[in-house]
Amino acid sequence: MSTGNQHMSCTGYDVPFHVLQQLAVRAGIEVVGVTTADVFHDVVPQLQRYYAEGRQTGFEHPYSQQRVDPVANLPSAKSIVAIAVPYRIEETMRLRRPKGLRGSVSMYAFGHDYHRVLKKKLQSLVLLLTEYVGREIDYQMGVDTSPLVDRAVAVRAGLGWIGKNGMLITKAYGSWVFLGSLLTDLLIEPQSTVEQLDSCGTCTLCITACPTGALVDPYILDGQRCISYLTQSKGIIPEEYREPIGKRLWGCDVCQNVCPKNNVTLLGSDSSFAPVADLSFPELLHILSLSRRAFMREFGHTATAWRGYYVWRRNAIMALGNLRAKEAIWQLVPFLTDPREEIRAMTAWALSRIAPEIVREIVAKAYSMESDPYVKSEMQWACDDHTSL
Ligand code: B12
């Protein structure tokens, strides 16, 4: 391959766009785009509104100049390479829920940790770019953890458009893509024609389908109501969300599943995104039986482990409650005296749904020994007049 310096003299760019595309393919990246390192002025009001309305989840960076200014992240930045990697693959399409007491995990999370997979691809791209330009390059990779707003970067780089569900939707793969970015001091030629942005038209399927009403307006997600957030949050889940969460143990795909733009899309081909172990439809009683160490051994290499095992245990208990799983009663009872409040509270709730008449006395006993006022309130039903249940 010719050296970058030759190209620079002809075009003024260190890397022409068609070369970037070829290198991206070699790095296993399906969709690539480029944008300048200019400030994302148009995102400022959207972000300010997001924080001002308290819709943030705590998983995003606090508001700062770094969220909108690439140069505040990498002072030498000239370009941003934006990538989209599809994670819906053939193997996923063949999945069927097995029988039994099983929960579900969102498609984005049941394979190998996408942070690691995308960072590896970006690392390969860096090596290829370095080789191409024939010098060390300054760069900063971002997959999820970058202060920059990944979707805004992707839009400006021409990867797709934002749907009413807030998702970045690509033409080829729909919204079933992970996003990543590479800030670099290279001047990379932008795509000469960026495709006309598609739009949702009058469709509002995602808004009406959201089980918790988290899409409060077109393009506006209240992160704290989003099931994806709730399943990853720690502590006690507010009662109004417990039933809508259903059997979900991690993440939620409803607003993407109903999206017509996701009907006819190509599939990705990276087998890293195939379900790991039993993670697509985990057996709930198996989850409850795992020690923390065993959980990490089984699921530590997925994107679902970062919040720790207790979030999983709590979610499995909630799912069993929602499934009215009588078979689970005696495995649940010991959690009434678990050291963690949220586990005791969710167990009392689950048992009240599964078989209040069978466990009333046991829960009433737990109530009498309980010292936490909130957990006590979750057990109160066992002491109330049972004709009201
Ligand atoms: C915090 C966070 C969450 C929070 C809050 C989500 C949210 N909407 O902000 C929670 C935990 C709820 C969450 C859920 C999910 N997340 Co998340 N999340 C993030 C994170 C870390 C920060 C997001 C952020 O800053 N939000 C602030 C708001 C204001 O920005 P935004 O919604 O991301 O983007 C808006 C602006 O870009 C603006 N915008 C920009 N240009 C334009 C142009 C036009 C015309 C319009 C109208 C708007 C617009 O509109 C966007 C949509 O509101 C990003 C990674 C990152 N660093 O960006 C991943 C990220 C957004 N999440 C991702 C994923 C996969 C998910 C889930 C699908 C996971 C799941 N299946 O459970 C759900 C989807 C929920 C949904 N419908 O949005 C992907 C999205 C990929 C994609 N195709 O869009 C990202 C980019 C991670 C990644 N690297 O791939 N997530």
TrEMBL record:
Reported EC number(s) for this entry are: 1.17.99.6
What keywords sit in the KW lines?
4Fe-4S, Cytoplasm, Iron, Iron-sulfur, Metal-binding, Oxidoreductase, Queuosine biosynthesis, tRNA processing
GO annotation terms (biological process): tRNA queuosine(34) biosynthetic process
Q: Which InterPro entries match?
A: 4Fe4S_Fe-S-bd, 4Fe4S_Fe_S_CS, ARM-like, ARM-type_fold, QueG, QueG_DUF1730
- EC top class, as a word: oxidoreductase
Output the Gene Ontology terms for molecular function.
4 iron, 4 sulfur cluster binding; epoxyqueuosine reductase activity; metal ion binding
Recorded hits in Gene3D superfamilies, A to Z, give: 3.30.70.20, Leucine-rich Repeat Variant
| Boundaries of every 4Fe-4S ferredoxin-type domain copy | 190-219
**Known PROSITE patterns for this protein?**
4FE4S_FER_1, 4FE4S_FER_2
What Pfam family is a match for this entry?
Answer: HEAT_2
Write down the NCBIfam families for this protein, in alphabetical order.
tRNA epoxyqueuosine(34) reductase QueG
- Tell me the protein's name: Epoxyqueuosine reductase
Report the source organism: Sulfoacidibacillus ferrooxidans
Q: What is the phylogenetic placement of the source species in the record?
A: Bacteria, Bacillati, Bacillota, Bacilli, Bacillales
